[in-house]
């Protein structure tokens, strides 16, 4: 099969990337980051999470961030919403898309959102309905689809089941997430093929963390199946607070470098993203985890 000619990259750095930072990142820094990213050409930026601030303190400034960003026409600014309380907050903050996030593993569901998979779907039902009633785009994210830090292997049937439930809730897009970055390319294809049987291929996305350095290979393996939406995080920021030891998403700069080399259109300016990666890495006081970002910076600095 030919690779897709065009892909959508969802930039999740401001949410998935920063949610795990121990030191408080002020709202104005997040706002500057989001603005730099939308200026770089992303059509979808995950900017906020309306979750309990006791569970994820870093996301407590989500309203301020959503209020402060310069909204670029045509860009979808997404926010995580685990329940109706989160949905109301996201609606008030004018999120263009809300993300219900469940898991293919019971153990991870309990640790991350404090309820079983079935309970989570029941919580998502009113959120999904409210999203439709208010004309807000609805995305479903499925964590630990490739492996779980608490239960280990995750069967394909469990992934198929949650994809079908998310589909039945009316999701416009569904993310298949490797929360702890354990997948390898053939396993990725097996999981993606399972998801493709249950949902529209053009609305399925791959969300790969890079813990074991496999994320880029897994994206390529997904491209081979025709998947055309991928999540990534500028400078490779991030990790989930409820997946200990798991590192950030694959770095956006690395994904863009590969897409450019493959002649796949993204609509995003790699140099501008590398600058945004440099900006946030400097703020955090550490080197970016993006190989391509660091190489571009070194080249620029001669
Ligand atoms: P709970 O304790 O079961 O909820 O938490 P509750 O309904 O019993 O409420 C308890 C308290 O939380 C109450 O406050 C509520 O007001 C408050 P109190 O009376 O104690 O002061 N609360 C909220 N506050 C703000 N916004 C809300 C909200 N809901 C309740 N929406 C809950 C359940 C889901 C809220 C909690 O477990 C939670 O917030 N978990 C956070 C999970 C999270 O954000 N994880 C990281 C993001 S997921 C991820 O990174 C994976 C992903 O990237 C894909 C992948 O890589 O796998 C998407
Ligand atoms: Mg994630």
From TrEMBL:
<protein>
    <recommendedName>
        <fullName>hydroxymethylglutaryl-CoA lyase</fullName>
        <ecNumber>4.1.3.4</ecNumber>
    </recommendedName>
</protein>
<comment type="similarity">
    <text>Belongs to the HMG-CoA lyase family.</text>
</comment>
<comment type="pathway">
    <text>Metabolic intermediate metabolism; (S)-3-hydroxy-3-methylglutaryl-CoA degradation; acetoacetate from (S)-3-hydroxy-3-methylglutaryl-CoA: step 1/1.</text>
</comment>
<keyword id="KW-0479">Metal-binding</keyword>
<dbReference type="Pfam" id="PF00682">
    <property type="entry name" value="HMGL-like"/>
</dbReference>
<dbReference type="InterPro" id="IPR013785">
    <property type="entry name" value="Aldolase_TIM"/>
</dbReference>
<dbReference type="InterPro" id="IPR000138">
    <property type="entry name" value="HMG_CoA_lyase_AS"/>
</dbReference>
<feature type="domain" description="Pyruvate carboxyltransferase">
    <location>
        <begin position="7"/>
        <end position="274"/>
    </location>
</feature>
<dbReference type="GO" id="GO:0046872">
    <property type="term" value="F:metal ion binding"/>
</dbReference>
<dbReference type="InterPro" id="IPR043594">
    <property type="entry name" value="HMGL"/>
</dbReference>
<keyword id="KW-0456">Lyase</keyword>
<dbReference type="GO" id="GO:0006552">
    <property type="term" value="P:L-leucine catabolic process"/>
</dbReference>
<dbReference type="GO" id="GO:0046951">
    <property type="term" value="P:ketone body biosynthetic process"/>
</dbReference>
<dbReference type="InterPro" id="IPR000891">
    <property type="entry name" value="PYR_CT"/>
</dbReference>
<dbReference type="GO" id="GO:0004419">
    <property type="term" value="F:hydroxymethylglutaryl-CoA lyase activity"/>
</dbReference>
